[in-house]
């Protein structure tokens, strides 16, 4: 195992740790249930959200299999094909992943009690527009985009390129769904927020 293997393991552990602490804090400390997967959704939208969540778990498992150099692979061996030979890609990938985790942590601090997984139609939190949310309307999705792309550049294999492409497309679609939900929920306040704050970062 080398530095990049340990780095990928550490990023997965930090991600899970931040997520777990936030869930426990809201559930036990604030008496809020932050898990609302599938809330207010039916049919394709519900299936899409469940598949996306399962896909994230499978992807993290594959990251750990690569990092620990386990012989077992979830996907067929042709998807292990290496696409980039430059070692600088690994450094750039680690930089993107690190930036993603920093954005992720800042987002959870800024979210306060309003963070949810999915659409909480019964008990939504207040609209958050300060902190990292004054720079990006979707910092957690931005974090995941950076992490998926960074992981591809670290491992440089076809399977991680496929995951990155699917993840970026899926999260963009999910963002558009959430924008409709939030516009209906918060009305003019959210539309004003959209006018002054980028969907991702600088665009």
Helix fraction, binned, reads 55-70%
- Text of the CATH class: Mainly Alpha
Strand content: under 5%
- By DSSP (H or I, 4+ residues per run), the number of helices equals 6
Mean pLDDT: 88
The main sheet orders its strands as: 1-2
CATH architecture label: Up-down Bundle
Structural class: mainly alpha
Please summarize the sheet with the most strands.
2 strands, parallel
Uncertain parts:
none
Rg, Cα atoms, Å: 18 Å
Any overview of this molecule?
The chain is mainly alpha-helical and 203 residues long. It has a single domain (3-70, 78-196), classed as Up-down Bundle (Four Helix Bundle (Hemerythrin (Met), subunit A)), CATH 1.20.120.1630. The protein has 6 helices and 2 strands, in the order H-E-H-H-E-H-H-H. Strands 1-2 form a two-stranded parallel ribbon. Helix 3 (88-111) packs antiparallel against helix 4.
Short description:
This protein is mainly α. It is built from 6 helices and 2 strands; from the N terminus they run αβααβααα.
Q: What keyword list fits this structure?
A:
203 residues, mainly alpha, Four Helix Bundle (Hemerythrin (Met), subunit A), two-stranded parallel sheet, 65% helix
How would the blueprint of this fold be written?
Layout: H1 3-29, E1 35-36, H2 43-67, H3 88-111, E2 117-118, H4 139-155, H5 158-186, H6 188-196
Parallel strand pairs: 1-2
